[in-house]
Structure formats: C-alpha cells, structure tokens
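Troubleshooting log. The previous run stalled partway through. Resubmitting the same two chains, unchanged.
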Amino acid sequence: MKQLFHLQINGEGIQVAAPVQKTLLEVLREDLGLTGTKHGCEVGECGTCTVLIDGKPVLSCLMLPVECQDCEIVTIEGMSLAGRLHPLQEAFAELGAAQCGYCTPGFLLAARGLLEGTAAPSRSEIEQALAGNLCRCTGYLKIYEAVELAALRMRGLDPVT
Amino acid sequence: MTTNYKIIGKPLPKVDARAKCTGETKFADDLFFPRMLFAKLVRSTQPHALIRGIDLSRARRMEGVKAFLLGNELPIPFGILPVSEDEHALCIDKVRFVGDPVAAVAAVDEETAEEAARLIEVSYEPLEPILSIEKALATQSPQIHDYAAEGNIHKKVALQFGDVEEALGDSDFVLDDLFFYQGSTHLPMEQHSAAAKLESDGKLTVWSSTQTPHYVHRAVAKVLEMPAAHVRVIAMPNGGGFGGKSDPFSHEIVAAALARKTGRPVKITLTREEVFYCHRGRHPVLMRSRLGINKDGTITGLDFQTILDGGAYGSYGVASTYYTGALQTVSYQIPRYRFRGARVFTNKPPCGPKRGHGTPQPRFGLEIQMDKAAERLGIDPAELRLKNLVQPHSLTANWMRVGSCALRECIEKVLQGSGWSKKFRKLPTGAGVGLACSAYISGAGLPIYWNDMPQSGVQLKLDRSGGVTCFCGSTDIGQGSDSVLAYIVAEILGIDPLDIRVVTADTDLTPVDLGSYSSRVTLMTGNAAVQAAERARAILFDAVSVKWKIPKSQLIAGGRKIFDAEDPAREITFAAAVQLAEAMFGTIGTVGSYKPPASAARYKGGGVGPSPAYSFTACVAEVNVDVETGIVTVPCIWIAHDLGQAINPLLAIGQAEGSVYMGLGEALMEEQVFRRNVHQIPSMLDYKSPTTMDMCNVVTYLVESPDSNGPFGAKELGQGPLLPVMPAICNAVYDAVGVRIDEIPITPEKVLKALRAKNAGKPARFGPGEFPPLDFGEVRIVPPPWEGGDGTAVKQPPAVFRMRDD
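Second attempt completed without errors. Output:
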C-alpha cells in the first residue's frame, strides 16, 4: 500500500508515492533516482547513506519519509549549485580524499553538517564529527586535510597550494 | 628525482575525482533498467550438509515472483584457478558453509524477492562440520571436497633451496617460533552487486562490481554455456575491492542466468551479511619458523612451515599457499631456504586474496623473529636487517629476480623520521617503538590460466579534435588506475589528462587486462599504455617531420603542441598534427600490450612469486600499552616505500596511508571468527574496523628507485605498505611492555594474558603453543643460484661447489 509523501529535497518540493515502511534511503535511490546516496549496511552502522536533514547529518537508512515531510533534505546531488562544486567537494577532489568514492557522499554531507555549526573545527572536532562514517580506502587522513582546506576557504582564507 | 616529466610525478587530482565527489559515479547497484527484476539468493543455514530437497511451493504462490533457479540448472563448475574449479553457481547436492548459495528467486521488487527467498524450504542431512585447522587435519571423512590432496587437506607444497638442515646445524643459534595470524575480511564499503540483461539478439551483458571482468567473462560464458563472444562483462567502478571482488561469484552467474531465463534485466545486490559470506579474505595461518643466524648477525638459513585455513572452496588458495612461502627471501639474503605449506578445507566462507595476498602472514612471523634474533644478539633490529639486506639486481635462493631495491634508504628514512635511536628500548614502560620491513610483487609473472598472450592491452584512438580515447580492460577500484592511464598517455603525447577519455573494464570495448589484483595494474597497463602512446606519437611525428622536412628525432611533444627542438617557435597544435597525420595515413589508432619477462624460477611451484619488479617497505610503529587494560593505542606510524617512481605522489601517499590503516585494523581488531559453526560477527557493527577515533597519524616517505621493468620506472604501491605494519606494532608492544604477542590481532585480552604470564615467571608471550605434526610430502629440491642451480628441480642435491662470497 503506497502513501503519498511531500518532501523538500535539495530545495525542490517533490511528491512521491511509496510504501510507508520504505526507508528514506530506498526512496531516494529507487523512487527518485538520487543514487548518489549510497548504502553499506542498511542498519545504521557505516554512515555511507548520510544525508542532511535540516542541516544535521542523518542516516537515511534509519529514516522513513513520513518522518521528514516538513524538513529540508540535502543529498549529495544538492551539494553543488549550478555546476559549481561546494568547497568541500573541491577540496576532497583536489587532495585525493575520495579513493573508491563510495563512502564519499556520506563523508561530504557529514563534513558539511560539521562546518555549518563549526566554521573552524580542530582536527579532533573533525575526527569526532566523522566518527560514524567508515572509509576503508583512505585511512581518513586525506579526508581530514580536505575538510580543513575547505573550512579555510569557506572562511575566505585560501591558502596557496 | 630530477626529471623533465610534465605530468608524471605531479600531485594531480584523479581524472574521476570530481565525479566521485558529486554522486555522479555510477556503481553497480546504481543501475536501474526498465522492467528490471530483483533477485535474492537462498543461502545454506548448515555448515556442512547434503541437500535432501528444495520446496518452492510456498514461494511460488507469492504474487510478483517471476522465476526460480536451482543448482541443477547450472551444473558446470567454476572457480578462479583452473586447478580448483570447485564452485557451483548454486549448490547442487551439498552445502559447505553457512552462507553457501542454494537457490535463487527473481521478483518484481527486492522486498518480494526477499520474502520469496524466505519461503523456499531447503531440507538438509547434516554432515560433521569441520571448523578448524586441527579438525581438518584429523578428519579423513567426511571430506568437504573429494578432490582434496588427502582427507581435508586441499594442497600440500614443499620446496627446498639448498640444504637447510645443514645450514641451521652449522649456525651459532637457531630461533624456532610459532605464530598465528587470524583471518580478516576486506569489508569494502560497497556490497557486491551484479546486473544482467539479455538483448534480443541473444547477447548477454553483465555489469558487476568486480575487480576482474576478464575472469568473470570466462566464468559466465562457461557456466551458461554461451559463446564467450556473445557475453559482455562491464566492471563498474568498485566501491572498494582489496581483493574481495577478484573471484567470479555465484551472484554474477545467477543474475545472468535469471536474465536469460526471464528475458528481463535482473539485479542482485548482496546484503552486508552476504558480503561476509562471499569473503575470500585473509587466510588464518599457523606458522612455524626456524631461523638460523650467526653471532655476527648473518642469516644462514630459514625453514618456514605454514598451514592455511582455506574455508570451503579453492578460490585463489593454491596461489595463497605458495605466497606464504614465496617472498621471505626477497627482503633479506637467505642463503638456504625451505618452505613447506598446506591448505586445509573447513566449513567456513572461502578465504582468498586480501591486500598482500598470502604474504602478510609469513611476513608477520619473519619480522617478529628478526626482532627476537636482534634481541638475542644484543644488536639493534635495524642493524640486523641492514646487515642482511637483499641486493638490487640479484637472484634470491628461490630464484626471484630482484631489480631495483632501495630498502636500505627506506629503513634509514623511518629510523630518522621516528627518532628511533632516541626511542628504541629507551621510552618509559608502556611506550615503545617497533620496526619491520617487507617486499611485494608488482604483478604476478604468470597469468592465472596458462596462456602466451599479453597480460594487459591498451588501445588508443586519436580524434581530429585533439581528443584521445584510451581503451583498456583495467578496472578502477579506487586505486586510480584510470588516472594512471590518462597521465601516462598524456605525458607521452604532450597533452592534458583531461583531453583523454578513458574507457575501461568492458570486455566488448576494451583490450584484455587481467584485472586489478596482485598490484599489477600500474606496471602492466602502464607499460602497455607507454607502448601504445609511443606508437601514436611516432605516427604524429612521422607526419610532422614530412611536412617540416626535418628528422623525427628533432620533434618534441608538450603543451598540446608538437615543437621543433632546434627552432621552438616552430610548432603545430596537437589537434592539427592529428589532422595532418590522418590526411597522410588514414584513421589514427594504435595498440600497446605488455607481457612480463620470463621468470628465472623454472621449477614447479615457481610460478608464484616471480614479478617484473618488487617494491620494498620499512615501517616504524610507536605504541602505548595500558598495562591495566591491555589496550594498545598507536599514535604514529612512519612508513617508507620504494615505489620505483611515483606516477602521482598524491595518490601514492593515499595508497600508503590506506595500507597503513588496513594494517592497523588487522593488527589491533579485525578478525573473522566463528562460534558454534556460524560466523560470529557478520555485520559492520560487530566486525570491528578502525574509525576516525582509532586511526593513527601516518608519516609517509616515497622512496624512488626506478626499475627498468616499470613504466617510467614505477613499481607497486597499493599492497606493499600494509605488510610491515602488523609486525612493527607487535615489536613495538614488546619494546613497550616486554611481552611477545605472536598472534594477530593483538587484542587487550592477549596482552593481559602475556603480561600475567610474564609476572608469573612464565614465558612472556601470547601465541600458539604447538604446530601439528604434518607430512608435507616429498620436498622438491631446487639448488639456489650460488650452489650451481639453473632454476629447475633436481633429483638429488648437487655437491656444493661455491658458497656466497659473504
């Protein structure tokens, strides 16, 4: 039995009909074609499916669409605007923070959630904020560096690289 | 390194970096086709049993169910190695581990398929389960596979290079140690997924998250009994592989068979639990190592024995077994060497190749033993290693041909960087440092199935626009192989990597590359790309030299132009040069291919270990050990890796850091363990892997010693830097608290047990207590190069006529 949901995704109002028990992750990927959001476990263990809900990183595999009808949802597809990458995306690409790239959307959104609250995070704050996201390729270090570089640039401090 | 390279050696972003940061990159499970069905596998709930019946009746009644598939519909076996084609797409009469696929169902959506799979009832007649090395050795019957060498021993190997017993007998002392390396799994973030579609002309396409599309191509065609020319396999970008997606898998073949059966596209995406069952991860290995050494620190001989817990199927296991004995000689000069290994079958998910494939385990043992030897000699463990270093451009006792080698420089870098001389045996109790080294192959000298063809091919198409398309079968699993192709072609043609469209891993479109395993891609596809690009450049130079009436040798390509070296103002754009050449010679396309040089190891069993080039790594780990809790923390690891030449130092450091990360996980927490015949932890929450809160700082040194066999001198990097991490951490734990942990992972419990043993006056150690008596069979005797051998086995050892000079 499908139900009609009214969702705000990446700044657009979207109506989608889906079974009520289908997770936000599944609806994004399967019903809306937003496959940039990935899955690694479907039970809230890996952070790969992270999206922003009202600016906060949330695991979309643990959310139902019915829970976020009055919320602003941002997925990786909504991170770049008019073909311009978000500074975090630029920095991740530049510094090799994405190897296989599968966990990358989740990390980017978790990092964006951090930077929206903390403009100049310390290394330890970055580690804390990303502790729920697993990456098997990078050893996280390039990810930290990319978050730090993006944070600098977003504060208008563009280091010469 | 001073070179004039424009692109090689520069820290450029990957060619696909932006796509991976926008969600644009499509992975296998991101594929959705109109009318696509979703399939699920029914997996065995029994570790070892005969299948007595499969009842589909309840599942058949479900609305939305479109097709079933059972094992007897696909009776042809497959497997990655021709010597162990022991898997079926779905088990026919017997299951061999909890998770073995038994039946499949396709339905209109995933939920329906899942529910239908739950309703399929399989009845079993249980057989005695075999879950350990000891039980496998002790159980003649039932056999997990009837093709085993004997009982449940899959394979036995025994190789001897010189009279080891004599060497050990003549040594000032012999260390005799046991080690155990627990198994671990790859845990790629992406779960395996495969989609398949039959076209109306009868041709089949399979999209898969595989590291080896060529082998999947062969397996699908074989099992489905289709002409291979009508099967197309496309490897999608892998969301992490680490060796776990290198075998052809049941779900790939089943998706293809169901697509054929239903005439509709079919996709199977594994759950995380199923990924644990696919496994092919690190073999648990029990080891005994006897190292002969003289008072002056010279190694006299090594006698190494391994028993591998292989799990339920062959996979790469025969190669894994040989790899537990192949590379000990490639880091240190070992004048006489004997290796005996055996792999047993057990009722657990099959083991296979995980990053380092069969070499982290023996390396773990050897490097701890080197530490113990140095302790016994009263010398610095770095000094002991430096004294015994393998020489560049030499042959080892087991006939591995070492090319460039900068292991000495690697050791020096990590000693200096870590402040070793101020720390070793000098830090307060609870803090310590440890050193370890390693060597790894840059691709295997021989292909997996015997053939004389190239291991890698590259094809270039030059367009009038100045754009170049580069076709290659290699598969990007995140390591950056697409980028390496673009950098190399761009460097040689003098254009920008962005001018190149890289088309890879498609068996219809791209020349064969054997796949992303054994650290082969940069060297092998790189060499193929060099050849193809040089041929393309030669065509352009031909055309320009005719037009300008100057010799070709006077031409230079760079900056999207071709110049006259004598008169740099004279130039033609790259695009104009292509047009000129096309007008003269017709459509411009070239090919390049690569086949490794013949190996010096000509004895049976010498097919594993030879490589066109070896990488070398040195590692210092610093640890803190809490003596109350046994918890080991690692603040920093220094890693120096001889990679020949960095094609891109940014990506190279990323590979080194990622290797250290994975090594850290294996050292401290990752383990694939079983209880009551089932996998204890088939979930990401319970299978502990390092999070940001566990990761250490890493200081990486890229050491360049160009090897003449590598493209621009490049050697491997993706696996080697993992190898020394685990023993370096163990050696650091010893430095910190004086106990030996001869077993991976180093859990707090093991540290506490060892500390308690130490405090009770018992041996200050945690590790295996015995090595089961095992007849490894007849030893193949191969004289080492310095004892007059020619790389082949002999019946009797020849009289020694010449010892090594030193």
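Takeaways: Residues 786 and 804 of chain B are 6 Å apart (CA to CA). The longest strand of chain B covers residues 614-625.
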